[in-house]
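Quarterly update from the structural biology core.
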Amino acid sequence: MEDLADLPAPGCPDSHRYAVILAGGRGTRLWPLSTERSPKQFQGLGGGQRIIAETFDRLAACVPRDHIYVSTTARYADEVRSSLPELGEDKLIVEPQAEGKPAAFLLIAHRIRSVDPEAVVLSAASDSWVSPLASFQEASRRAFEFVETHPSWTAFLGCRPSSADTSLGYVRADEPAPDVTGVRVAREFHEKPSADRAAEFLASGSYFWNSSHYCFSAATLIDAYRDAAPVLSERLDAYLTSGSAADYSGEGGPGHELYPLVEGGCPIGVVESDFSWYDVGTWPSLYRALVEAQATDVVTAGPVVDVGSSSTMVVNDSTMRVVTAGLEGVMVVVSGSTVLVAPIDTFDRQPGLVTELQYRAENTPDEQDREHS
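Predicted structure, tokenized:
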């Protein structure tokens, strides 16, 4: 990560700009490194800084550090505290249980607006890889300025696709926003398209990756949800009044956290961004991020020795030394008592394979482990 001292200050303490890290995900697509017991956001590849801590430092380049919140579930609250010891308890937004992103976003908006009615919030997934930091900071600044001057809009940081990744969300945005340079109007959202559709989006030049960095007025989001998702809003109001976990529910929530804004007539702007971004939620996307970070097609994390391999990833989250030679297009992951070996692109072609492998590994008696299915 770049030296924060080399970057402009993120803003004065009385700024209305806030950030929130969403850290309630289970991260099961990066099994065996990431598990429900300890998801990837709390992992440090090869003993490095935990991913959530990297995300916190990145956001600290955009807003004052005491304006950063973390949203998670009760299950992972202690992991957040351990990963971010400087985070104040009042900056931890804890859902009693996971009820979907719309419920989480509405709770976030209520909590931060209760502190500052004029709050503008930048949200970030806990597991993104972003570079360079200065470009991310600049794009975030433009998003804040845009929403501050257009409070009925929501903006997100859009990145030009560099591959036809089927695990990501795409948005068509080929029309400039009125009187605003560098912001386009979002027209169509496509979540996890087929390989053919993703290739079409990449070739068209009109689509952006949805990096899940949203910038919104907390008051606008709450009002939009009241109109477009009244049942969810009523359930959350009941929870905020009672404080009882039994009242916390995602019932009546939309299929996507942005839908109430769209349905409520709040336009969505795409801030054209020139930083590199990867959602490290799958093994292929993590590989692509590490290739860029390490500037080599043989990427490693942890105690690894490799000779003569190409287009290979070796992640060793153990105290053993892993030695590889002559591999091509292969990933090797060592975590706990599990070793995963597979062609990297397998998980692009078969997105559900990791779940199947985990199920089989955890439900096959030891004496049958070597049998072929």
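The radius of gyration is 21 Å.
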